Amino acid sequence: MDEQDLLERIQALVEEEHRLRDTSTGEGNPSGSDDSRARLAHLEAQLDQCWDLLRQRRAKKDAGENPNEAEARPISEVEGYRQ
Q1: Alpha carbon distance 63, 48 (integer Å)
Q2: Which domain holds residue 10?
Q3: What is the CA radius of gyration of the chain?
């Protein structure tokens, strides 16, 4: 996946996240369904993974390395990073 593909994937995930947040916060349903909350959590984890991969690719490129050698880290690893 090249940088453009990755950016397009991030955009698609963000759009889906926004749609879910808009529909799950409607009147009478302030917290959303269990399915919506689970899907949002999954989307957030995927976004974190994509952003991590994008940062890896850019760091490799800046260091004169091949950005295509960057690999997506497991979600469990990415979610464990300190902010």
Answers
A1: 22
A2: 3-78
A3: 15
User: Is 37 within the bounds of a domain?
Assistant: yes
Within a domain: residue 21? yes
Tell me the pTM.
0.82
Tell me how many domains the chain contains.
1
- 23-62 pLDDT, tens digit each: 876 554 555 688 888 999 999 999 999 999 999 999 999 9
Burial state string for 24-42 with b = 16 or more CB within 10 A and e = fewer than 16: beeeeeeebeeebeebbee
Please list, in sequence order, all residues whose beta carbon lies within 8 angstroms of the beta carbon of residue 72, skipping any fewer than 6 positions away.
49, 50, 52, 53
